[in-house]
Specification:
Blueprint (H helix, E strand, L loop, with lengths): L2 H11 L4 H9 L5 H16 L2 E4 L1 E6 L25 H13 L4 E6 L7 H14 L4 E5 L5 H9 L4 E3 L7 H7 L6 H13 L3 E8 L6 H14 L3 E6 L16 H14 L9 H6 L3 H8 L3 E2 L6 H4 L15 H14 L3 E3 L11
Parallel strand pairs: 1-8, 1-9, 2-3, 3-4, 4-5, 5-6, 6-7
The protein binds 5'-deoxyadenosine and FE2/S2 (inorganic) cluster.
Length: about 350
């Protein structure tokens, strides 16, 4: 089938064979607009002009893992490690609440300090102070019992990117002590425990091919995540992948459109990484079908230290400045930031 017929099949059935996804990606130049229009139509039908905001609180730059792409990998001796105090984290949430956030994302490296007890206590505190807010965790791989305790403490959602749905590719991006199987098991556990679950991957990561991306799309088609975070890979100077090129905004936006069509209600952020490789990256993401932005609420003095990749934006700005800036950017493309938990709307379209 030619790209045009594949695009029409995707729109009609919301699914393709794995090889067809690869052909769709390779032939994207001639179908970009068609898929973008369909993606925007779907997101508007479900979410109108609303863009949801998530307040990202980067609680720790300590990480026991050594992912080859990541700037806070444990082998990076140049990474300045920090850990926010409980009070700092609660203060970030307070300020975020005042700024209109109704979702807080606690994100960090896999840091043993954040035990189930400490993390659970924090979740309870935030939920008690703001019962109208959702708490999302992005704290990497933990065990079933740990995820269970954090859920019982009140966590609503969990973000754990699968990074790649091709096991051979997973091995190329991670050290031998990490596995594709464990990552997938974590995602299954989270789902079983009743979390709203987010997966995702980097676009243009080293060794990625259209065939690998096709597997990511097939995985999204079957897993049907509540959220899906995709952003370009951006090299970090102190990692083994320093010399690899960054992913492309154009391909990232195309994939945002495809993912919206595969699973119309999915919550899809226009990521900070996309805003980093292109001056209008987040706006382009929204125009491709994204409906979420995730500004940083971390204290300004730690922002530079949570550097997963080079030249990350928003590391010098106060939270309020980022909200103002994003508000203007979102308006510039005809959308509107809303103060809302922003849960997934599962009604079918
Ligand atoms: N470029 C882009 N994204 C990255 N991440 C980690 N390192 C990089 C990088 N160099 C992404 C991973 C991780 C998420 C928190 O950030 O996909 O899951
Ligand atoms: Fe942070 Fe624009 S969103 S400065």
């Amino acid at each position: 089938m030619n790209p045009k017929s594949l695009a029409e099949k995707l729109i009609a059935t919301r699914a393709l064979e794995t090889e067809q996804y690869a052909a769709l990606i390779d032939g994207r130049d001639e179908i970009r607009e068609l898929l973008q229009n369909e993606a925007v139509r779907l997101r508007t039908q479900i979410y109108g002009k609303a863009v949801f905001i998530r307040g990202l609180i980067e609680i720790s730059s300590f990480c026991k893992n050594d992912c080859l792409y990541c700037g806070i990998r444990r082998s990076n001796k140049n990474c300045e490690r920090y850990r926010l105090t409980p009070q700092q984290i609660l203060d970030c949430a307070e300020e975020g609440y005042r700024l209109g956030f109704r979702t807080f994302v606690l994100q960090g490296g896999e840091d043993g300090y954040f035990t189930d007890e400490r993390t659970g206590w924090l979740i309870q505190k935030i939920k008690a102070a703001h019962p109208d807010c959702a708490v999302t965790l992005s704290l990497g791989e933990r065990g079933y019992e740990s995820y269970k305790k954090l859920k019982e403490a009140g966590a609503d959602r969990y973000l754990l990117r699968h990074e790649t749905a091709e096991p051979a590719h997973y091995k190329m991006l991670h050290p031998p002590d990490m596995s594709y199987e464990n990552r997938m098991e974590c995602l299954q556990s989270l789902r079983e425990l009743g979390y709203q679950v987010g997966c995702g991957f980097m676009v243009g990561s080293p060794y990625q091919t259209s065939a690998f991306l096709a597997r990511d799309l097939k995985f999204i088609e079957s897993f049907r995540p509540d959220m899906c975070g995709i952003g370009p890979f951006i090299p970090h100077r102190d990692t083994p992948f320093a010399g690899f090129p960054a992913g492309e905004a154009e391909l990232c936006c195309f994939l945002l459109s495809v993912i919206r069509i595969i699973h119309p209600p999915v919550l899809l952020p226009a990521t900070t990484a996309l805003g980093t490789i292109h001056p209008r990256g987040r706006e382009l993401g929204l125009e491709a079908g994204a409906n979420v932005v995730m500004p940083n609420l971390s204290p300004v003095d730690v922002r530079k230290k949570y550097e997963l990749y080079d030249n990350k934006i928003c590391t010098g700005e106060e939270s309020a400045q980022c909200v103002g800036c994003l508000d203007a950017r979102v308006r510039s493309v005809g959308y509107e930031i809303v103060s809302d938990r922003g849960d997934i709307r599962k009604e079918s379209v």
